[in-house]
Amino acid sequence: MAAPMNTCKHLIRTLTRIRKPKPINVCFIRKYKTGELKKFYKNASIVQNQGWFEVNLDQRKLRTPTGNLFQVPSEPLALAIATEWNSQKETIKRQAMHLTTLSNTVLDNPMQRSRGDIVRGVLHFLETDTILYRSTEPQEFLELQKQEWDPVLKWFRSSYQVELDSTTSLMPPEIPENTEEVITRKVNSLNDWALVGFQYGVENLKSIILMLAITDKRLTVEKAVQLARLETLYQTKIWGNVQWHHDVDIYQLQSRVAAAALFVHWCSNDMATTHKTTYSNQT
Amino acid sequence: MFTPSHNKMANQQKVNLGRLLYKRLSREMKITANPKEKLYDTPVFQYIANQFREHQVTTQKLCKGQNEVMMVGQTYLCMLESLRKSEELAQMYKTTERSIEQSANLVGLKLPTVDH
């Protein structure tokens, strides 16, 4: 934060020296440079302020990309975010800071999404859920799908008292109305913060059922990612694993989904204090 | 007669899993944290230690599921480990992009010369 301020002051000084007659708009302090940002702080810590938790980088308060104050409703989440900032070495690697990014999305709402938009986005994955689509050949893969995906589907059906069948065709399966209603209610029961985390998880896994299994503590993140990548797993067992492609894929997926799961857990009402939510006043 | 010892074994397994989780979490935090500070002093580590202390008897909270807090710990561990490994792989496989001349040399060609 210090560097842009200095360049800005310098800029103002040089321009005033030139003495342009018309007024100059020099307030163009971008919070984050597009190039590599060096680590400009020594320590990240958290403070509590009126029920919200803020992150301090040295003495300065962390802000979102649009300049809002960075606040989260849960202490462990704030601690984990401070850890993310503390883990940065010489440069800031924002692509590794998933919890920070998720929190920024909730606070800024850059795509102006309402709750309804997000819930609809999540439900969209129901008819294209990964574990519902079975490919019929090769036979070995069909067996593998049955072996790995069927237990999860069985748990899902019994736990939520809904009917949902897998399909072997290209067309999406028929979703019974009751199923859709139950799942919509379940997704809607998440508060604004947890909802964003949940949607991020579903997007990455390409499956609501797997994400629900994670948030209901029925599957570990590693197992869920494995199930989401079952076909790739099967192919790499036959044709070989390429470390810089497949392993990178696995670790990236795992880190994202784990971050989403933690976000949902820590922001759910029993862990966090409930506040006036950011999306409720939009429809 | 059989059940108490069976329970005892299951409990011992849970305790062992807990110990393992604690060890692995500490290791990850040591790697990512500030080397100047003692890990024990950081608020994050104190939070983790408190969680382990609080939930010694049972990890069931709000009837949401068995081992709920353990799973949260495991999920956090998963996130830390995955980030670290993904970074390691990126470092291991990073290369600088070759210039056009170097790429041409790979297949035994030279760049055409331009006469002005």
UniProtKB/TrEMBL annotation, chain A:
What GO CC terms are in its UniProt record?
mitochondrion
- Which keywords does this chain's UniProt record carry? Chaperone, Mitochondrion, Transit peptide
GO BP annotations listed: mitochondrial proton-transporting ATP synthase complex assembly
**Coiled coil spans:** none
Instruction: Tell me which Pfam families the record gives.
Output: ATP12
* Primary location recorded for the protein, binned into one broad class: mitochondrion
Q: Kindly give the InterPro entries that the UniProt entry links to this protein.
A: ATP12_ATP_synth-F1-assembly, ATP12_ATP_synth-F1-assembly_N, ATP12_ortho_dom_sf
Q: Where in the cell is it found?
A: Mitochondrion
What family is this protein classified in? Answer: Belongs to the ATP12 family.
- Protein's name according to its UniProt entry: ATP synthase mitochondrial F1 complex assembly factor 2
Say which species the protein is native to: Magallana gigas (Pacific oyster)
Automatic annotation (TrEMBL), chain B:
**GO CC aspect terms:** mitochondrion
InterPro entries xref list: FMC1_homologue
A Pfam family: Complex1_LYR_2
* Family according to the record: Belongs to the FMC1 family.
Name of the featured protein: Protein FMC1 homolog
Q: Which organism is it from?
A: Magallana gigas (Pacific oyster)
